[in-house]
Write a structure and sequence with these properties.
- The chain contains 28 helices and 30 strands.
- The N terminus is likely disordered.
């Protein structure tokens, strides 16, 4: 039994030893393989650790992950030791090699298990990372719609490496947020950026509120940290290795992104897009590009409305009403959305649609479903106005018909008369202050510039809001019914408590004998062409009236009760063609400052007692032609502004102009003068004798020397800047010294029909250093605009706009040496009907045009090249860096714009080409003109273009617009 047990034990030992020997042999055999596997696993471990450290900021690492990273370092050191041993294995005994191979195999398993543990922890952390883009619900924009085009404009700027910050600017309701959300969701944006961060900035924003919004988006936990700079540091650490896009919606004030996020414009490829209704905020944020958003066109608005309402719109009875409904929305997407949603609920019930339209047309006074949000957002703009001065000025605009043109000068006078303009001692200061207020209202889109020069308008939606606000105010009761085809004066209960009444542009033919309007401040009855008379007692109770406008009526006389208007400050009687009588008691108007009697039959001497007038506008017909002894103008010795309209009364003006010039020259408080001098001698008489000409640097003028019928002169007359001095020289025969004196103060110069000079330099180019605008029309002897041989200094260095038309002998813009600084601010050039012009940009000139934005060349039959290669052989690719629009019309010999595609055209956005049949190529390739948005031209011309390659053709084909 013992022997058997011993034998069995001996057998087991032999088996174990045999197995051990086999393992030993295997380890020796796998030594090299175990080394390679270990190194491979160690490399994968290192990659996992690096990925974790790269993808996950140190602030996101959990305690377990930190332990894992620390242990990884220890394992890597152990692997390094084993690797070193392997490299020295030649001097080792067999048993040591066996142990080394075993250790590497075991370490390999440890490394693998540790890596898998790290990847599991990483996956958990990655799930907690913020998604690159957080999609937002929004209106999907139709291809080629206006709003879609605005999105594409921003995308082009995002593609431009030189553009870091972009602003989307427009009035409330124009779909800025919709554009921003479409950007956020755009697949191209997702490909361009690692992270897109959307932040909605409320009016009550603060640095910490913005930081909290960003932290939430980034899923960053900074619990316990309250310091703004430290939080900004955490945000910076999170974003510094990423290419990110920040979308800031509804920005109310300047935001210091460096303070809030620790970011600056040096961070590679990362960008900021902000949306704001305030353009000054955009400038304060130092944006590189601004994308303006306007109300939709009727076509785009109709498409949006139809899409929202749905198939109901196809019903012809509904469609007819829908058009009127749409017009109440003024192209505002916000309003279109709300209105369309409301009307969709009316289904195909025509009476409900008609009732809805009627209510919508009165929604300033009737509560309508869906309108509260619109009103609230609109009223925020009003409430955000800085002071009461701006608020009352805005509300005053509602007295005029919706979308009507409101003359700026007239509006400012009404504001002053009503006492809205504060801190102004004279008319000049009041106008300047008025323009400041006006510009603020335009900035916040409560008023807008009109297409008609020197005019503004208020859109119908904002006007309704203003009427609603006024109706709720105890101090601003108004009766507003302009342009409503009224034939009768309103009922007593409508007007007796009113502070302001506007019945302009109606058919009112009679007024009540008396009205009890003790609180009335403004009465606007202009352009009631059937109003032929005013009852004698009509004005009796209006002792507080400050603005009275009767212009464009057919009254022939003013009543005796006019003398009761003891507070009246502004009286407008212009274009009352039949008005001939005014009561002698007009002298009771002790506070009257503004009087306009142009195009009436009134005589200036009838107002001779009003020596306190500040602003007077008259026509030649208002002078007493037979009276050459009694002072007519000079008696108004407190006049600050004088305008004399000559019109077609040339013969009568010639008879009295010398006397009038002498009188005007006696006015010592004059700050503004609009006057036509028949010739330079009359101008010289004024310049020599007027004390304000030499002494008052604030004196502004609009002078015409000679009579003209030039349509082009409207270009100068339409200049909006109220401080510009304008000189039109008509049918001149040469150079007179007095013209040089006036040119030294001139900001806008029109040379019309001149027959005596061959260049602008003849007047002394050094005298034109204050000139911003220049018009040259029908000057038959001019061959060049600037002769560089006549000066050694920079010429026309402040000129911004140059307009040249009907100059038959013009050969070039510039001849001779070009001095540095010349034309440094020139932004717009128009050349029209210059049949001998061959050189637009002479040698060296193009290098100076760093600010040129608009170039138009039309009906210049000798032009073969816009930029002549022979004159610009060394032209750098960065030439014309600001050029945005290029218009080329009816140039029969034009063969090319530039010799090749070497220019970058970095700012070019639009090209229009028509009747240029010999132009067979465009100077563009696949990579230049990156901001180009449209090429407008005739189909036949586009079809015949020759392309360098298909890629360029394909790129530009998408920009082509058929003319």
């Amino acid at each position: 039994m013992a022997a058997e047990t011993f034998a069995a034990a001996a057998g087991i030992e032999v088996y174990k030893d045999g197995k051990s020997i086999i393992k030993t042999i295997a380890y020796l055999k796998d030594l090299k393989r175990n080394y390679k596997k270990l190194m491979q696993e160690a490399g994968e471990l290192r990659a996992t650790k690096d990925a974790i450290c790269t993808e996950i900021s140190r602030f996101r690492l959990t305690q377990d992950m930190k332990v894992w990273i620390a242990k990884t370092g220890m394992i890597e050191e152990e692997v390094t030791v084993l690797g070193t041993k392997f490299e020295k294995k030649q001097r080792w005994r067999l048993d040591c090699l066996v142990n080394l191979s075993r250790d590497m195999a075991e370490k390999c398993n440890q490394v693998r298990n540790h890596r898998e543990e790290g990847e599991l922890q990483k996956a958990t952390l990655v799930m907690e990372l913020p998604e690159p883009v957080r999609k937002m619900y929004t209106l999907e924009l139709q291809q080629k719609s206006y709003l879609h085009g605005r999105v594409l404009s921003v995308l082009r700027f995002l593609d431009d490496e030189k553009v870091r910050r972009i602003a989307i600017c427009g009035m409330v309701g124009t779909a800025k947020t919709t554009i921003m959300k479409n950007l956020n969701n755009h697949e191209k944006v997702a490909k361009m950026f690692d992270m897109v961060i959307w932040i909605s900035v409320s009016k009550e924003w603060s640095e910490r509120k913005l930081q909290d919004a960003i932290l939430q988006r980034l899923k960053l936990d900074v619990q316990g940290i309250t310091d703004v700079e430290e939080v900004a540091s955490r945000i910076y650490e999170e974003l510094k290795e990423k290419k990110y896009l920040i979308l800031l919606d509804e920005v109310w004030d300047m935001i210091d992104l460096n303070k809030i996020m620790g970011i600056n414009d040096n961070q590679k490829d990362s960008k900021v897009v902000l949306a704001s209704r305030y353009d000054d905020v955009c400038y304060d944020m130092e944006v590189d590009e601004i994308v303006d958003v306007k109300p939709l066109s009727l076509t785009d608005a109709w498409k949006m409305f139809k899409e929202k309402v749905g198939h109901l719109i196809s019903n012809p009875l509904i469609e007819r009403i829908a058009w009127y409904v749409l017009q109440e929305c003024h192209g505002l997407p916000l309003l279109i959305d709300k209105v369309a949603t409301t009307f969709r609920k009316k289904k195909d019930n025509v009476p409900r649609w008609e009732d809805g339209l009627r209510r919508l047309q009165r929604w300033d006074s009737i509560k309508i479903e869906g309108m509260d949000e619109v009103l609230e957002r609109l009223e925020i703009c009003y409430e955000d106005l800085k002071d009461g001065e701006q608020k009352v000025c805005f509300l005053y605009g509602a007295l005029y018909p919706e979308e009507s043109e409101i003359c700026v000068d007239y509006l400012l006078e009404c504001w002053r008369a009503e006492g809205f303009i504060n801190h102004a001692n004279n008319f000049k200061q009041a106008r300047n202050r008025g323009h400041t207020v006006l510009n603020e209202l335009i900035k916040v889109s409560l008023l807008e510039r009109s297409n008609k020069s020197k005019c503004v308008k208020m859109n119908k939606v904002l006007r309704k809001m203003a009427l609603r606000i006024s109706s709720q105010s105890a101090n601003s009761k108004i009766l507003v019914k302009p342009h409503e085809e009224l034939e009768d004066f309103p009922r007593k209960e409508e007007w007796e408590l009113a502070n302001r009444i506007s019945l302009m542009d109606n058919r009112v033919s009679t007024l009540p004998e008396t009205v009890d309007c003790h609180n009335l401040l403004t009465l606007l009855l202009q352009r009631n062409k059937y109003l032929t008379s005013i009852p004698e007692l009509f004005f009796t109770s209006m002792c507080r009236l400050q603005v009275l406008d009767l212009h464009g009526t057919t009254i022939s006389a003013l009543p005796l009760s006019l003398s009761n208007l003891i507070s009246l400050k502004a009286l407008y009687l212009n274009s009352c063609l039949d008005l001939i009588e005014i009561p002698a008691s007009v002298e009771a108007l002790k506070h009257l400052e503004v009087l306009d009697i142009r195009k009436t039959k009134l005589n200036l001497l009838q107002f001779g007692s009003l020596i306190w007038l500040k602003c007077l506008r008259i026509s030649v017909c208002n002078f007493e032609m037979g009276n050459h002894t009694e002072a007519q103008v000079s008696r108004f010795d407190t006049l600050e502004e004088l305008s004399i309209d000559v019109g077609s009364s040339k013969e009568g003006w010639d008879k009295i102009v010398e006397m009038v010039v002498q009188e005007v020259a006696m006015l010592k408080k004059l700050t503004s003068l609009q006057f036509c001098f028949p010739n330079v001698n009359h101008l010289d008489l004024f310049v020599k004798h007027s004390p304000v000409w030499e002494k008052d640097s604030y004196f502004t003028f609009q002078f015409s020397v000679g009579f003209h019928d030039s349509a082009c002169a409207q270009i100068l007359e339409s200049i909006d800047n109220p401080t510009y001095n304008i000189l039109k020289l008509v049918n001149g025969q040469g150079v007179d010294p007095v013209i040089g004196k006036v040119l030294m103060k001139t900001n806008a110069f029109g040379l019309i029909g001149d027959k005596g000079v061959s260049s602008l330099s003849a007047f002394g180019i050094e005298k034109m250093n204050k000139m911003f605008n220049c018009l040259i029309d029908r000057c038959h002897e001019i061959k060049t605009i600037v002769d560089g041989h006549t000066t050694s200094e920079a010429a026309l260095k402040w000129l911004e706009k140059l307009y040249i038309e009907n100059v038959p002998k013009l050969e070039s813009i510039w001849e001779g040496p070009v001095h540095a600084g010349s034309l440094a601010q020139l932004a717009s050039i128009t050349l029209c009907k210059c049949p001998e012009l061959k050189k637009i940009f002479s040698h060296g000139v193009i290098q100076l045009l760093l600010q040129l934005k608009h170039l138009r060349v039309e009906e210049c039959s000798q032009i073969e090249e816009i930029i002549m290669e022979s004159e610009n052989a060394q032209l750098v690719p960065q030439a014309l860096p600001k050029l945005k629009t290029l218009i080329l019309l009816d140039l029969p010999r034009l063969t090319r714009i530039w010799a090749n595609d070497s220019l970058e055209w970095p700012s070019l956005q639009g090209i229009e080409i028509s009747m240029c049949d010999m132009l067979k190529s465009l100077p563009f390739n696949q990579i230049n003109a990156t901001k180009l948005q449209s090429i407008k031209g005739q189909p036949s011309w586009w079809r015949d273009l020759v392309w360098e390659d298909d890629a360029t053709k394909q790129r530009l084909q998408s920009l082509y617009i058929c003319d």
